[in-house]
Specification:
mainly alpha
Length: 172
Amino acid sequence: MTYISKLMIPLFVLFVIVYGLKKKVFIYDTFLEGAKEGLITAFNIFPSIIAMVFAINIFLNSNILNIIFQFLTPFLNIFNIPLNILPMAFIRPISGTASLAIMNDIFLKFGPDSLVGRIASVLQGCTDTTIYVLALYFGSVKITKTRHALSTGLFADFIGIIASFIIVYFFF
């Protein structure tokens, strides 16, 4: 299986070249046009990415999450929700990579088959990186008025977080 997976990308490239030759496309020129468009796109979204990374770092270093966790602890204890899942639940709408790192830490500390590990797995699938999507995609096409996109996306993430708790408690 490892051998087949190593062959997939070269075979795909070969397929594209053969298909391009069959359709009589100037493959190299088309590749250069695509590379040029890719660089222009990367250049256009770079400020949005820098702004998002800067805002995430300010948020994470402000210690506001610890204040929120202390406030929510009594409520979560009533419903038997593990406190270790809170950092992932709050970071997931902001950064997918950071939430994956938190999930990895949960797996290492508690195991993937633990209650917290299962909640983390389902939470990863039930939510999206809303702020990342808005910053990157809306920023790349110069949309400045997001209207209801942020509130709707964060509400969907909130419902996904609640659903992940319910699903894990119901099925496991």
